[in-house]
């Protein structure tokens, strides 16, 4: 938490200077609000994170074109906080808004699009909408496969999420296949005690037990 406190202090000092010297709707103030919100998010203080993310969004909404990438960043930030707060329908709306802007402003295979599809798919998993989750995760995986090296951890994340969808759909053979692909990449790219390796290993154990039933 010490590093977060330092980051928070640094962003707050930057904000104080900007607040005294800039107009109230200046884009740099929005950036400060967003940065402070991200630190609170990482600290697990989600109501504060949401408050600062919303302040950033209010400035950007007033001052930027409706398809500006900074607005997509704000929607993304708010969506991630809503997800942590368990407000999945609000999170979904925010992530879909981010994706809508990204489609207008980014190349069709840009990694940010993959991230957004992944986030939307994860929300559909939590909401129990398996076919929509699968569709989103397939789009995320397709982009990851086209744009990332074959041993990139983000590709492993995408395989893992595909496994989760198939696990929830009780297609144990496909779930196992995707989990094992994720594990192979994680084991090459991450230290052996990393939580991702532990999580996917547990998922493989669970699927194998269910597979035998």
Secondary structure: elements and pairs:
Layout: H1 2-21, H2 27-43, H3 46-63, H4 69-84, H5 88-105, H6 111-126, H7 130-147, H8 153-168, H9 172-189, H10 195-212
Pfam family, one: TPR_12
TPR repeats: 30-63, 72-105, 114-147, 156-189
InterPro entries: TPR-like_helical_dom_sf (IPR011990), TPR_rpt (IPR019734)
Instruction: Extract low-pLDDT stretches.
Output: none
**CATH top-level class of one domain:** Mainly Alpha
Order of helices and strands: HHHHHHHHHH
Mean pLDDT: 92
Largest sheet: none
In what range is the share of β-strand residues? under 5%
End-to-end distance = 44 Å
Classify the secondary structure makeup into a structural class: mainly alpha
CATH superfamily of one domain: Tetratricopeptide repeat domain
CATH fold call of one domain: Serine Threonine Protein Phosphatase 5, Tetratricopeptide repeat
Q: How would you characterize this protein structure?
A:
It is a single chain. This protein has a domain at 1-105: Tetratricopeptide repeat domain (Serine Threonine Protein Phosphatase 5, Tetratricopeptide repeat), CATH 1.25.40. It is 82% helix and 0% strand. The chain has ten helices and no strands. It has helices at 2-21, 27-43, 46-63, 69-84, 88-105, 111-126, 130-147, 153-168, 172-189, 195-212. Helix 4 (69-84) packs antiparallel against helix 5 (88-105) and helix 9 (172-189) runs antiparallel to helix 10 (195-212). Keywords: Repeat, TPR repeat. TPR repeats lie at residues 30-63, 72-105, 114-147, 156-189.
């Amino acid at each position: 938490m010490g590093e977060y406190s330092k980051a928070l202090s640094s962003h707050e000092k930057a904000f104080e200077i900007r607040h005294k010297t800039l107009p109230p709707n200046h884009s740099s103030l929005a950036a400060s609000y967003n940065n402070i919100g991200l630190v609170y998010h990482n600290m697990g203080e989600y109501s504060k994170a949401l408050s600062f993310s919303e302040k950033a969004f209010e400035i950007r909404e007033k001052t930027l074109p409706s398809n500006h990438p900074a607005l997509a960043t704000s929607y993304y930030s708010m969506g991630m906080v809503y997800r942590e707060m368990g407000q999945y329908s609000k999170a979904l709306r925010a992530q879909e808004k981010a994706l809508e802007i990204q489609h207008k402003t980014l190349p069709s295979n840009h990694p940010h699009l993959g991230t957004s599809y992944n986030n939307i798919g994860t929300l559909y998993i939590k909401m129990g909408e398996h076919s929509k989750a699968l569709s989103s995760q397939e789009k995320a995986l397709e982009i990851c496969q086209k744009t990332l090296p074959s041993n990139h951890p983000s590709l492993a994340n995408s395989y893992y999420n595909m496994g989760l969808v198939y696990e929830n759909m009780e297609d144990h053979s496909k779930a196992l296949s995707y989990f094992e692909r994720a594990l192979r990449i994680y084991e090459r790219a991450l230290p052996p005690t990393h939580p991702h390796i532990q999580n996917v290993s547990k998922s493989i154990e669970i699927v194998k037990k269910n597979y035998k039933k």
